Amino acid sequence: MDLQFNSRTFLAADSPYAESLAVIIGCPLDITSSFRPGARFAPQAVRDCSWGLETYSPALDRDLEDLKICDVGDISLPQGDLEGALETIQNYLTTVMADDKFPVLLGGEHLISLPAVTAVAKHHPHLVVIQLDAHADFRQEYLGDVLSHATVMRRIADLLGGDNICQLGIRSGTREEMRAARSKGVILDREETLRRTAGRPVYLSLDLDILDPGVAPGVGVPEPGGLSFGEVVSLISSLGLLQVVGFDIVELSPLYDPTQQSAMAAAKLIRELILQFCPSKNQP
Ligand SMILES: [Mn+2]
Predict the structure, then answer these.
(1) Which among 120, 153, 172, 265 could bridge 137 via Cys, Cβ 3.0 to 4.6 Å?
(2) C-beta neighbour count of 113 within 10 angstroms
(3) In angstroms, what is the span from residue 207 Cα to ligand 1's centroid?
(4) Which helix (H) or strand (E) element contains residue 183?
(5) Residues with Cβ within 5 Å of ion ligand 1?
(6) pTM for the full model?
(7) CA distance 82 to 30
C-alpha cells in the first residue's frame, strides 16, 4: 500500500507496525464536505496537538507507553476520485484487519466510516456500529449524491441493517431522515445501546461535532447545543464494557480552528478511546 510516510507521529505511536496492536491511520478524505471543507488537514493537526498531552490518563489509570502503537501516516487518497478514495481506504483497512490490528482512523470527513465499516464488518460479521455525532447523517442522498458525509450512516445501514446501528448525541436531522432511521431500527438511547451491543464487536465512529461548538468550533458543520468535553468522556466511559474493535474520529477542520482547541479535544479523545478500548496483550 502506498503511504505518505510521516515522521511526526501521534503521541507515543512509535512502535513498528508488525509489533503493534493499535494502528493509527490518517484518512484525509475531503471531497463531499459541503459547508466548511478542510478535513484533509485534520490528521496532521491532531498529531501535532497530541504532543501537548501526557501519555498517561488519570481518569483511566492507563498509559499509552504501556501499549504498542504504530502511526502509519496518511493514506494517499485521490481527492478527485471519490470511489477510488473509498476503495483505497477499504483495501487498506482490509489488510489491517487481516493483520489482527486495532484500527484508529483519523478523518477526514465522515464518509471514511463507510469503507472502514465495510472492511471491519467482513472481519467481524456480527458488528454493531455506534455513532457519536450531532447529525444523523441518514439522508438517502444529499445534493444529488448517495455517497456523502450526510448519507454515511444510511449507507452503513444499507450494509449492516439499521438494527445494527446505535446513534448517540444526535441533535440535528431532517424529519425524513429521523423517521427513516427509526423505521429501520436504529436506536438513539444509551441503555438500549448497551443492550444491543452486549457481547458483540463494536465499531465506534466519533464525529467531533458531537461536542458543543464552544468546545470544538473547528468542525465541518458546527451544531449549537452540544455536549461538553466531560459529557462526551462520561458517555464513552459509560460504554466501558463494550468490545470495541476499532474506531474513527472525523470532521475536524483545522482551517476553522485557529486556537487548536478542537484538535486538542480530538487528540485527547483519541488517547482516552485507545486507553479504554484497545486490548493490551500485556494486561488481562
Ligand atoms: Mn457526522
Answers:
(1) 153
(2) 32
(3) 5
(4) helix 175-183
(5) 110, 133, 135, 137, 207
(6) 0.95
(7) 9
Tens-digit pLDDT string for the chain (284 aa): 445 444 489 999 999 999 999 999 999 999 998 889 999 999 999 999 999 999 999 999 999 999 999 999 999 999 899 999 999 999 999 999 999 999 999 999 999 999 999 999 999 999 999 999 999 999 999 999 999 999 999 999 999 999 999 999 999 999 999 999 999 999 999 999 999 999 999 999 999 999 999 999 999 999 999 999 999 999 998 887 899 999 999 999 999 999 999 999 999 999 999 999 998 764 43
Give the DSSP letter of residue 160.
H
Cα 162–Cα 163–Cα 166 angle in degrees, nearest 5: 80
* All domains of the chain in start order, with CATH: 3-277 (3.40.800.10)
Cell representation of residue 142 = 444529499
